[in-house]
Specification:
The complex is a heterodimer of chains A (233) and B (110). Chain A has 233 residues and is α+β, with helices and mostly antiparallel strands. Helix content of chain A is 60%, strand content 18%. The radius of gyration of chain A is 25 Å and the shape is elongated. The chains are: A alpha+beta (233), B alpha/beta (110).
Chain lengths: 233, 110
């Protein structure tokens, strides 16, 4: 392959990668709406189901009197309202991602295979290390999207000689993904990308995780994703 | 007439009253508490035969109350109620030793 052809191939790979992250951004607003709806539905169900439980019990007590028919009617109506709440909850919670036990070693290998064309464009600038059996209760597809997004932060923002190290390990009941650059401060890199970080926060939250930027002992900055570990039975 | 005593714990006063009323009509001696702290003190002092508690309450959950009792090695039967009906909550409740987990609303046949 000639140098010009190689350049075109690289440009195509990079464009494809950027297009993918643009699609993620378009999903952001919709996912924000779903999360907000789920929270409202959850709160609503709690607020309504307590008085419904009271009505149901008082209705049951009424069925033991000579007003039995009234008590039965109250019971029927309580069930009808509860059914409506259940449907509302079902419609909103279905929009949330389903969480399963995710083996991070396998997921990361799969993701690296997908990213290989991109990694090959920048030889030696990306390093992944992990140890032990790391599992979380998460969503494999979402984890892979998060890794791609973090990768995008790096290639968008860091210098040409900068190297990115991704490591993940399990400690004290948590799994920690750590993205560290060899040069440059990640917080400076990420400052103009606050919008993208918001999406990362949202995806982490959906899997009970958190995102943080911390200063390492040697002065470098690191972007960290922390999830509760899933115990292997 | 049933001499067993039951403690009903829920931050919703009407629901607390409804459950207490229904149980009292069945002949149980019923006490109520509006939060897990009050409930914990009552359990220590009065030692009821059973606790029926809401799962999510401000200040401390029904699961916290159950754990505190289990730490003291009491096998006090716990029945937990929740308006959320999440599978995770039910699994946690049963793992911690609750005898049952019911979702609101429910009728008197629970």
């Amino acid at each position: 392959m000639s140098a010009a052809e190689q350049l075109t191939t690289n440009e195509f790979t990079l464009n494809k990668f950027h297009q993918q992250t643009e699609v993620f951004k378009q999903h952001e607003n919709r996912e924000h709406l779903y999360v907000a709806l789920s929270k409202v539905a959850c709160k609503l169900s709690h607020e309504l189901r307590n008085p419904l439980a009271s009505l149901s019990i008082f209705g049951s007590l009424l069925t033991r009197t000579d007003k039995k028919r009234y008590g039965e009617k109250i019971g029927e109506e309580v069930k009808r309202i509860d059914q409506t709440i259940a449907e509302l909850l079902s419609n909103t919670t279905n929009s949330k991602c389903s969480l399963n036990a995710v083996d991070l070693s396998t997921t990361c290998e799969e993701w690296l295979n997908e990213m290989l064309p991109l990694i090959n464009i920048f030889p030696g600038r990306f390093n992944v290390s992990y140890s032990g059996d790391c599992r979380i209760l998460g969503n494999k597809d979402l984890i892979m999207r998060m890794l791609t997004l973090c990768m995008n932060y790096f290639f968008d923002s860091c210098g040409e000689s900068d190297r990115l190290d991704l490591s993940f390990n399990q400690k004290s009941g948590f799994v920690e993904f750590c993205w560290t650059t060899t040069e440059g401060a990640l917080d400076q890199c990420l400052e103009p990308l606050a919008g993208k970080l918001e999406l990362l926060h949202l995806w982490a939250e959906l899997q009970n995780g958190v995102v943080g930027i911390s200063k390492l002992h040697d002065g470098r900055d690191s972007l960290t994703l922390i999830f509760p570990a899933q115990e292997v039975e | 007439m049933n001499n067993s005593s039951i403690l009903v714990v829920d931050d919703d006063s009407t629901l607390r009253e409804a459950i207490a009323e229904a149980l009292a009509l069945e002949g149980y001696q019923v006490a109520t508490a509006s939060d897990s702290e009050v409930a914990h003190r009552f359990i220590d002092k009065e030692q009821p035969d059973m606790v029926i508690s809401d799962l999510r309450m401000p200040g401390g959950s029904g699961l916290d109350l159950l754990r505190k009792c289990r730490e003291k090695n009491t096998n006090l039967p716990f029945l937990l109620m929740s308006a959320y009906g999440e599978v995770d909550d039910a699994v946690s409740a049963m793992r911690e030793g609750a005898i049952d987990f019911i979702t609101k609303p429910f009728d008197l046949d629970f």
